[in-house]
Amino acid sequence: MDERGTRAFRAGLRDALPRWRAEGLVDEAAAARLAARHDLDDAALDGLGLLPVYVLAALLVGSGVVSLVAWHWDELARTAKVALVLGMVAGAHLGGAALRRSGRHAWLAEGVTLLGSLLFGAGIALMAQIFNVTGAWYGIFGAFAVGALAAGLLLDSGSTLVAASAAGLGVWSSGWLAARPGDHGLVVPYALALGFGALGWRRRSPALLAVTALGLALASLVSAGVVLWALPPLLVGAALLAVPLSAGPAEAPLAGVLAWTGRLAFAAVAFAISFLEAARHVSGAPRLGNFWPARGAESVGVAGALAAGAVALGLARWRGGRLDLAEALVAASACAVVGLGVGLEEPMLTAVAANAALAGLAALLVARGLATGQRGSFWSGVALGDLLLVARFLEIERLLWLKGLGFIAAGALIAWGVVTFERRRKEVRHAA
Amino acid sequence: MPRERLRLAAAIGLQLLILALVPWRQLLASWRGQEVTLATAPFDPIDVLTGAYVRLAYDVERLPPDRSGPEPEQGAIVYLVVERAEPAWRLVRVAEAPPPPAPDHAVLRAEWRYGGPHVLGAGRLYLPAEKAAAAETAMQPLRGGGVVWRGFETPAAPRPPPPLVDLRVDEAGNVHLLRLRIGAQVFSD
What we know:
The complex is a heterodimer.
Chain A: H1 7-23, H2 28-37, H3 51-71, H4 78-102, H5 106-130, H6 139-154, H7 158-178, H8 187-202, H9 206-223, H10 231-241, H11 243-246, H12 252-272, H13 276-282, H14 297-316, H15 322-343, H16 347-372, H17 375-394, H18 400-431
Helix pairs in contact in A: 3-5, 4-5, 5-6, 5-7, 6-7, 7-8, 7-9, 8-9, 9-10, 9-12, 10-12, 10-14, 10-15, 12-16, 13-16, 14-15, 15-16, 16-17, 16-18, 17-18
Chain B: H1 3-21, H2 24-32, E1 34-39, E2 46-47, E3 51-55, E4 77-83, E5 90-95, E6 105-113, E7 116-119, E8 124-126, H3 129-139, E9 164-169, E10 175-182, E11 185-187
Antiparallel strand pairs in B: 1-9, 2-3, 3-8, 4-5, 4-6, 6-7, 9-10, 10-11
């Protein structure tokens, strides 16, 4: 754990310290000690919210440069095209380095460094065009991921590492797995997830962790067979939801990011199979007796082992957080029931398990919001509950009065939420 | 050199190296290969990543229906042995490994997909949009199913010359596309 604290905590502390000092809450020596202990002079704390703006600006400038080049692209000689591609990549990286050295525009430097790697990605496509290179579509993303990973590590660029994870794990490994039906290539996305996940944890990067977790969920979905597609991402989601159980208070923010990503992946897939028609497609071919040879069974096995391991570790090291425990157990049990439904060819069992799990997650999110006063949790729970309610009532084709009641109930739930939550939030804040 | 500069140089150097390696098979074939001409049947889609191109299928990728022997696995690399003929080189056999060089013979590295071989690195000819459109227009009179005129010709109908592609091919089967010829028109980047 970084003893300096999370970035949000440090930024808040840096804003508050002068006020506390003025109000006499802390003396000058204490303020200096706090500033030193939490490294409040770190330039990385400056203008955090401006990073997306700088990245966007860099992208626009880059697109402008590419458009200017494209203006006479066809008329350029091959050597000139190659020189332009290489020059743009090197130029952007040199510009980023110059900005970094100046020490005054940390986030602009980050944006330009990312731009260098994005131009490198565009350069791969252009080199393929210049030399008529053909290959699998995902190859470009694999080559980009290698170069971006190296640049991210060597230049200490977090956004470049996020791009490498998205391209390598999310796109390349998914495309690679999809092109190899029945191949035993599962180790690749899990190894990539382990590498990028460790990197994200070490760098305390929520964005890198979230993108890596989503990439693994996507790759696990692609790696499964047509019938079993839902189970691996559900299991990966359950594994991520179990991470906060074994995380100490110091790791709580990062574990929370992983849990949110897992929640998103789990809820998206569970929502898809909460419809009976979709559940019918998930259930079917492999009965329990011939489950293992079915395509994608390996993917289910690996993701299942991951989820079982995460839950077991969480139970063994559980340090409080009853809502975390309840959520992890709801997700894990739903996976077991959906798996049973698939094995027994029971679409109704699968759909009911998905609906029950989503309702449970929604209720737990609402409870978490009420307990902590966090608007994000509460409204996510209400939104999920409402979405589920509306989806179920949309399926009703004849009993229109029931459909009407359902929509009224969804609206009433939101109205109730506003009143209840805001009142409860005030109580929590007063108690604090 | 300070450590930071070394890291910057390494990052830039690695990315430039990857860019340089993208066309390595094409460069090898271009430097050490011989020129081969194949009959083709092109059409022109657009790739969102790389722009306009003419997609090319070759007569040598069409195996005789009476071909014997086990079928390679999906994705397996095979080698098409072709021999000089006019107007285009023709298929002699499909090999699992590149055979030793022989006069008036060449070998094309291919991937086995969907029940047949596809020559690697020769499936697309990238062209500026205008040239791609012109190639498409030139192809219109030759259209007729998967292979030019096959299934449409009558004994009395004169068969137009097939579109031809010139490539450079090295001994390892790497290819570098040079140009597409449709009648008297020549298309290259």
